[in-house]
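Sharing a chain and its predicted structure for anyone who wants a worked example. Both blocks are below, sequence first, tokens second.
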Amino acid sequence: MLPLQFGGVGLSAALAGILFSVVLFLVGFGGVLALGKLAFVPGIKRVLGSRGFDEAVLSLGSSVANAVVWVAAIAIGFTMAGYGAFLSAFAVFGGAIALAVGFAAQDLLGNFVAGIFILKDKPFEVGDWIQWNGNAGRVEDIDLRVSRVRTFDNEQITVPNGDLANSAVTNPVAYDTLRQKFVFGIGYDDDIAQASDIIVEKAEEHEDILDDPGPSVRLVELGGSDVGLQSRWWIEDPNRGNFVRVRSEYVTAVKEAFDEAGIDIPYVHRQLTGSVEVVESVADDE
């Protein structure tokens, strides 16, 4: 009977040890998890919110904070339960996997980071008209990985955020007003002062061109067949539609006024000079 009793005592001690380890794990796990849910995650949300981050960044930050809390809770629980060596081995293995995944998905991670900075810095917003790398369109959506832009030909371009973050992006509608320019070419025999007056007059007559700042004209070039007069004018609440419409109406009005005033808008022409030598050969009569 003694061996049986001794075996029973050993088994009881083993079970007691396992239960004690489980209790320690639950205490450590539950304590860290509760602390993280009640303090760490809300704190991260408050910090990101106070810095003006977008709702998408707040959601991402909350998810990452929750993941950190769960990992920390499991790690503390295993450590308190006396399984630190197992946790260390798992951490090394997990680190190797994370390194491999990081190298394989570095472009993807770069786009995520770029998306966060775009949402934070706001170089453009949904609805803005932007230009980059020879492309142009209106922003329809900004996600953490990509942005979607509708071109003026009604095509959708899905642009990785890394491309937008690493390129010069022009936002013509970032401010309340926009200056436009157009070069009118007149003949060398035409009156520059008269042409300049017409250009300014037609700008002042257009209802969508601002009086302050007012339109102006500068002589910018003496071309091969014309004199270039650059008109500069300002419009309010700019967008692509206003940009094209106002310029078209204004240039048309100036062209018609030039025609009435007899001011020529010359086209490029070239004059060829030289001589042509004609060589004739007469066959000998047989």
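Comments welcome. Helices lie at 2-50, 55-80, 84-104, 106-121, 161-165, 192-205, 240-261.
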